[in-house]
Design brief:
The protein has one domain: Sortase, Chain: A (Beta Barrel), CATH 2.40.260.10. By secondary structure, the protein is mainly β. A hairpin with a 6-residue loop joins strand 5 and strand 6. The protein has a 6-stranded mixed beta sheet with strand order 1-2-5-6-4-3, with no helix packed on it. It is globular, with a radius of gyration of 13 Å.
Length: 101
Amino acid sequence: KLALTQLKENQHPGEGNFAIAGHRGYRGNRHFSRLPDVTIGDEVFLHTKEETFVYKVTDISIIEPTDVDVLDDRDGKHEITMITCTRSGKQRVAVRGVLVG
């Protein structure tokens, strides 16, 4: 309820498809409360202790909870995929971005 979580073991920012999920929440500013509001072209900043990774949003889609192929790495691509629930909770919002810096 309080944090984001990595969805794949041994994943690292800037490598392959870095996948994160988090609760959307409707009270306060949860981590992904505004994820459904992002638009294609927006930038996402992922901060680690050592670096900041910048991704540009390339795709936003509504998927079924069973559509786990959005987590797969794609050859030669360094991406981020962020997932939260739709307002009804029956589907998921999946936002994908490509590493730009």
